[in-house]
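Re: folding output
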Amino acid sequence: MAYAIEFARARRLPLVLNMSFGVGNEREGAARIDSLVDSVLAANPDVVFTISAGNDGPGLSTMGFPGSATRAIAVGATYPAVFLGAGPQAHDPVAFFSSRGGELAKPDLVTPGIAYSTVPRWNSGDEQKGGTSMAAPHAAGLAALLVSGMVQSGRPVSARAIRRALMVTARPAVEGSYLDQGTGVPDVGAAWRWLASGHAGSEVEVTALPAGTSAALRLVDGTAVPDTTFRFRLARADSSPGQRFVLRSNAAWLRAPDTVTLENGIGEVTLAFGRTVVGKPGVYTGVVTGWEPDTMAGPAFRLVSTVVVAEHGDPVVARLGRIPAGGVGRVFFAAERDRPFAAEVATGARGEQVLAYLHEPHGQPYREENGLAAGHGEEAGGYTVDARDVVPGLYEAAVVAPPLQSAEVTLAVARAPVTIQARRGTDHLEITLRNRTADSVKTQTFAVLVGAEQTASVAGHGSAVQRIRFQVPAWAVHAVVDVSLPRDEWPRFTDFGVTVFDTAGRQLGKAPLNYAFGRLHVTLPGGAMPAEVALFPGFSDPGDATPWTADLSIRLYADSAHVTRLQPIPVTLAPGAAASLALPWREPAIPPGPGFAPLAIVVVPDGPRTWTREVGLPAPSLSRQP
């Protein structure tokens, strides 16, 4: 950013910046790189900056940073139907991969998320590229046209005016709310006419209270809703006394006062929604706009408000009806610690197929493969989540219809009847089951020793690489590396690489963390060998040398011929009851190796289903005798 600005200033050139880069927000609006981008743009009000929204959609609250910066133009993606062989009259839906807002009033716009690109010869045949990384340059091109027009007409360039011109004159896509598309698809001709008309308007910054984000999001999990209001703080760039704005709501359920007045450039407004809104599960998004006397200038600000009502029941059966072509159906449901669950998606007729996505609480895409195809009958698809991987809170299941075909969809969520915990005793494996249902549970629980696990706490300073060495035994065929950072530390980073090397320095596998939790799968070449996990932290501030911490899990898996099964034990649990089962311990057929403990999968059969809990089993510590 500094180089581009200095280059343009030295040559007296106008400047449009683009950044096709996005990292998952753990705490929306708190990323350090966002504040850096905003400070640069505040100091250079003639610089237009477009940034990709990220590719973590279609779940809500997936907007990546630095696209979440307030002063930048965050660009989501449409899926051009022409790439699917459709005629020119076909509508371009919002792309399934495009990141969405929730706690942020983003994206601002959507542009085509597919483009042709020149590629090296070794990449021939892969000239078609997709992602919001393709969408943001489209928006940068539109902004450059407007900047060029302003320069040629002898008018000063204002990044705020260009952003507003593009947003005010954009056309909404056929499907989706503000959280999916912002104000829609920009029309550069209409934007130029808006600029040429000399419209002027106030610059008002919006903050949702008490969260401090740019939009209000209320998650409702239960019938009792103690508060049915949203509060927003409004602040003008200057301190004009007594400025009055007329308020308009685009949703009948979202009520606003008729006007709001900013005294000395500051004010608050409270919106309300009726309790009847929360009577039916679903996602409700409304936008209240603030208007000045020149209504052709468009709204001076937008108060984006969303109520998410989770599904109730055990099991959950949500009939989403017919999802229009390219549309998204969303279902939120609660998950409980130590309790596995399955989310299954089925279409209503043969020949109909959709993509099913799962998002963890706070928006992170499901930590294993995400985006599974689902169809009718035996072609239904979905996710079964191991108890180890369950994050307590509200999950979101999002179902996307194909861009050119609608689909009738039903989503079912089944939770395990029990919570599952396990630990290693001196001569047994102790499994604790607790019945979470109103019926008796009868099962025959067993465990399988499948490999070995090593855990470590890593403490680093600044961007210095941290290396954790370990020994791969001859029996290991696959490795999984989990890295978890505290959520509050994540806003300091811009990237965090995880790589597994062998002793010759060859990469066995690599992946970046896109959130504070990341998982890397590695297929091992076979044979015993030393190896190491290397952690590569990258910070928004290159000089950041403050300490950081991470929890690391290295899990090694054997093939099916080397696993050890522990004898099953039958158990019957009354409603709400708990039981501890002692499975006689058998040493695994595969020695764990130095620093590792046996890795087990606890299995709880439940009729046609099977619920699991993966768990590392370090030997119990012995208390010292006097």
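--- second protein (sequence, then structure) ---
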Amino acid sequence: MLSSFSPRFAAPGTATAVLSALGVAATLGVAGPADAASPDGPPIDVIVRYDAGGQSAAREAVALAGGTVGESLDVIGGFAARLSDAALDRVRTAAGVTAVTADAPVRMTSAGGDDDSWDGEGAGAGAPTQLTTTYGITRAAGVHSVWARSDATGRKITGAGVGVALIDSGVAPVAGLDGPGKVVNGPDLSFESQAENLRHLDTFGHGTHLAGIIAGRDADVPTGAEADPTKFVGVAPGAHIVNIKVAAADGATDVSQVIAAIDWVVQHRNDPGMNIRVLNLSFGTDSVQDAALDPLSFAVEVAWRKGIVVVVAVGNDGAERTRVSMPAANPHIIAVGAADPAGTTGRGDDTVADFSTRGDAARHADFVAAGRSVVSLRAPGSYVDAHHPEARVGDPAGRFLRGSGTSQSAAVVSGAAALLVQQRPTATPDQVKRLLMGNAQSMPQGDHIGRGTGQLDVSAAAGASTPNHRQSHPAATGLGTLEGARGSAHVADSESGVELTGEQDIFGQTWTPSTWTQEAQAGTTWQGGTWNGTAWTGDGWTGSSWAARTWSARTWSARTWSARTWSARTWSGSGWS
């Protein structure tokens, strides 16, 4: 099922132009005078953004216009409100107000049905701690025994020195991800890159959750003490995250941005201090192009052939969906489904999660990993945090959120891949995939197609000999269409509402597949900060982050929001409630 909304947008050329479709109305529960019938017409749910020091004035303007103020959205300098249509212009022109964006309900189809929710089942007091925490996940998957091993240089196997590229919604510098060198900021290719206070940061809340699962580590956890149930430790706590942000707070991004991000990872994988050997991509479109033709599929295959283990979520469309998302449809890369532990400590009753996309006999999940009610790091003030406080675990102001989805499963596997890469630095992506698939633990319960070869067992993979294996799937050409790669979701011009369609990227540059595919294979798509003929970002590093650049071309904002656009159901995991 596809869900969409068509909000109004802020004028281009302002910071608000890229933050205009947060879709917060469905869960705010604001009520008050504007709910009553009025000669000004029915109330409209909006997002009000204010300038520095203008919060009080903006809130007062809403009240004076007969509206009601809803939940704060501090991370973007705004709040939700409800106004009559006639009051919109009065508030827009009030002192302290920078933008008022009309909104509409959003439905992010979750694991439990058509509710706009994160999966908070059991969150708080009495929540199960051994199954859904990273401690429980790593213990069940045999990671603890791998941490106790050493590599050829004598270092404990924690993913040390391995870079995991995370193409997502950004990463917040919260505890567990704030250690020296833990997060390296690549280019911000999102629509928020033009706002200095938002650049690289996770305004949606999805990327931070995944980064914690992959490589989080509390500052007071010394090497050798990772298996401490009282601390937060991800699957590969010694690895570093290379943060390439492509999605804004409203989830808005175009396939061209994701492809540009993959190209950047390939081209900069061997830069000093990077050593990018794993790529986590929890993005998936409902493209129906053949994987051999689809440009997004081609991009991840190039990364794979360049020595990067690409881990992609299959999607959250459940057993009825017989086609995995793109680029999980590419047979070379690792496609991950979600396992449901069924609320027990043993694996004998584990099943494929009901939301995990089944696929078909030709292409389905290669194997599954824990994906139900996974507890990881919270990005305070982000979209998910603001709209699903019930997903917080323990103290309402605490560090953690619980979420479900094949995105979380992919993050677990990305961490596992980083461990194997540290253990066997010369292993190819094909060999890492065979180690993980061939040593997965059998699952007596559940769909035999949707579960692939079984459930992730990192200990068994680490204990096996490196296979002499090379996949024989035909090579992709990438000569399909960019529009086909988008599937059913598009971004739109922030002023006119015209959707970005056809063979052009976000700057309106023509997409020429025959040229791009050659450059992608050669690793020359990026020339400094220029991609496809337009300057997207700066030309190099500034401190620990890739330099930003002011965009002179048009900017776009979200217009269509599809429940199947993202393998994590629009970056939210499958559920947050």
